[in-house]
Request: fold
Amino acid sequence: MTRLEELIRSARRLRPATREAYLGAVRSFVAFAGTAPARWTTAAAEAWYVDQCKATSQAAATSRLFGLKKASRRFAEVDGGRDFAGPVEADRGKAKVRPQRSLTIAEADRLTKSAASDDTWAGRRDLVVILLAIRGGLRCDEIGEARWEDLAGNRLTVHGKGGRDEAITLDKLTVEALRCWAALRRRTEGPVVVRQFASVADDGLGGIQLRMSTAGIADIIKARTEAAGIENCTPHALRHTCGTLLIAAGVPLVRVSKHLRHRDVNTTMNYYVHDLKSEAGDAPGDALDKLFEGGGKDGEG
Reply:
């Protein structure tokens, strides 16, 4: 194990999936540049990043670069070495980056109704996944981390990026879907979204309490969007849709930023500036209730 790997493994407040992603980036860089610290230079990091861009997508290469930057910073802070990857910038000019897709209100409504029409065990679970993503704005890993103990009325404590726990307000439909799901499984503790096992039919309680993986939740979203006739929709597009719909409903930018748990309101501004309508409005949960009840305006967000 190289020193860079050790530094990532010892880093605090990294989610397991993030830690593994960062370790993958570090191993890739070391295989490219060599194991000797003397070979860990800015020039080597830049060459590695260019190579990654050629071998995979721009987004994947940039994500790996972030992992290497984390290791590089710790190398400087802990070992007194040089932050060799710090100066490397993700040059988005070298590749076209497709703008994040956002569903229209009609598509979001169709997706929700399509999932709700499936009254099976998996259907009830999948509806919760869809609503937490499209109305709660949760990422796939955050949905996987959600536990019944995190829910209090219409408030859900989300275990987010960087180990931060923040509470959000859920809309009425999401709260009702969670209530029905809890009643079906007869559980109010443990992970909210779980895998379905053969034992489900035996004990009627939802089987083993094994939470869904991030990849499993992404598969649910992919299957449900395709079933609703919605193409080219990534899991993160549902989170983006949440922000777009809130702004369309007139929720103030600061409240949208808080609901999406952005560290900086400027992040929200960068993503949704084209959707800004108003600086006055309801709380996120109430705004979504009204938006869908009223039919909304069917336009791209």
Observations:
- The two ends are 46 Å apart (CA to CA).
- Confidence is low (pLDDT under 50) at residues 92-99, 198-207, 275-281, 295-301.
